[in-house]
Amino acid sequence: MEACGSSSVSLREFGCEQSLLSRPDGSASFTQGDTSVLAAVYGPAEVKVSKEIYDRATLEVLIQPKVGLPGVRERSQEQCVRETCEASLLLTLHPRSSLTLILQVIHDAGSLLSCCLNAACMALMDAGLPMSCLFCGVTCAIDTDGQIITDPTAAQEKESRALMTFAVDSKDRKVLMSLTKGSFSVHELQQCIAVSQKASEKIFQFYRDSVRRRYSKTL
Amino acid sequence: MKDTPLSNCERDFLLKAIEEKKRLDGRQTYDYRKMKITFGTDYGCCFVDLGKTRVMAQVSCELVAPKESRPNEGIMFFNIELSPMASPAFEPGRQSELSVKLNRQLERCLRNSKCIDTESLCVVSGEKVWQIRVDVHMLNHDGNLMDAASIAAITALCHFRRPDVGIQGDEVTVYSAEERDPIPLSIYHMPISVSFSFFQQGTYLLVDPCEREERVMDGLLMIAMNKHREICSIQSSGGIMLLKEQVMRCSKIASVKVSEITELISKALENDKKARKAGGRCGFAESMPQERITALKMDETPVEMTDVTDRASDIIQRAEAPPQTVPSPVVPVPGVGQVGQGLQNSWGLEEEDEEEEENDNSGEEQEEKVTKMEEEQHEKEESRGGDVVEISDSEEEEVVILHPETPDKTPKNTGPSSHQKRAAASKKRQKK
Known about the structure:
heterodimer, A: alpha+beta, 4-stranded antiparallel sheet, globular, disordered N terminus, B: alpha+beta, 6-stranded mixed sheet, PNPase/RNase_PH_dom_sf (chain B), cytoplasm (chain B)
């Protein structure tokens, strides 16, 4: 069954708060519906000799699950987030230093990885790290009828035939990272990418609004 | 990453301020910082803000087999995660001294004080009991992690609801929240830890030390107490000698603080209960401050999908079609797998004869392939045969010249079968 464009595609309400923690150099919490992630950034700081890279900063990403210790799932998500951040951060400006990004899952109600990516970007922005572009994460699900759902809830994720998460950059709306699950056709993939690019505009607008509010003089 | 060291100036300043009965944040000696308790979306999730210190606790449950020594008691498990988010000095995945100390104190405070009725967690004696797991995550370290952790843990336990179970014969059914209302844990009392820090060998005392104060303190006394003024655990660390009067005074202060905190917890729990009953949305997202300049919220937004289909098909049309022909592997006999695409071993000369025999037995398709290989080999032999240099002082006694005759200049486009015969023939000649 091919995916057909439906008009009832929407993003759940977002919320974001920046610099809510005092210890980290940058922190942000990002909520998408009920899904919520807290992100903190430390750095650029001293790096362990074993992890030192002579021409750029070492980026370390840690995802802490809510219950129990981080496992394989968290490791794979960490890698996705790290590769996205590495693509947008200008790491060469801080050689031989370390950047640590810690993501704490507050509540998982679907589209966790995209929420992690958004929280990470907001925290990096708050830390004032030089970046070539911003990025955001969008999760798309294709349900059994072939309808595309953006920003699915946990129940929608469970029922879906395919689940895709894309990281989109703010400059050219290019795909920085993609993680897919389930089966889909090439046409559906392209449609999902197109939808994500559309949805990313909304998220970037939200970033813009929140930064504008932050640096405004009045509420 | 290392923690930022405290300079001597800062240390001296702090100690001098404490001597003058002043604190950096303007508090009095026995004052707690501002405390805020919020709850997450699901049951058993609690956030505690103690000044800038921020802690999250999450309670979860699981059906497990009980311990052999206690077959009809549920299991309590506590885990304090010193996440590197709280402080750069905390390393991930390593049990530091501090984390062991905090874990032990929390266990003594909540498990050993028997504040939770573990017998009510038994489902089938000796077979199935509930294991209640409390995960405490430190999110921001600004001193007095223990008090914040103990408040968060006990509040989360009070807030938690475990699923109902039904037993029919040998079958145990766990009902989901939709089927039957989940059940709260039975909690007898609420032990709360209160920390006291001592300076100048116990001369000065402060309640609820912040991170800077913790760094210059000489000793720490943690008293866990409930609102009935029963001491649940007491721990002194840092190696200072305390007088009996000091301990007595601390316990008196603790009793006052504990009753205040207990009241705050009950109020928070009640507010949350009301909010949940009203059916409104509750949780972390709702508790996010709206009046802060750093926070922004946006309502549900639709995404335009008008030209998505066109765009996708456009991209697909413009993209080059993937190659239709897939290089299929040659399978000599059905059900045979091979590595290296059937390349022949060209190391030993004796083996080749055997392989040839094998090849004769196999199907035609493979023969063609093999002949190609042979052809290649033959060519190699030809090229090698031309310039064999005999080195007289070689250690090898027998020197085998691969192709002693003058290489025959047959054109390459001859049929593979005839070529193979020639190749075989040439090899036999070599043997001789």
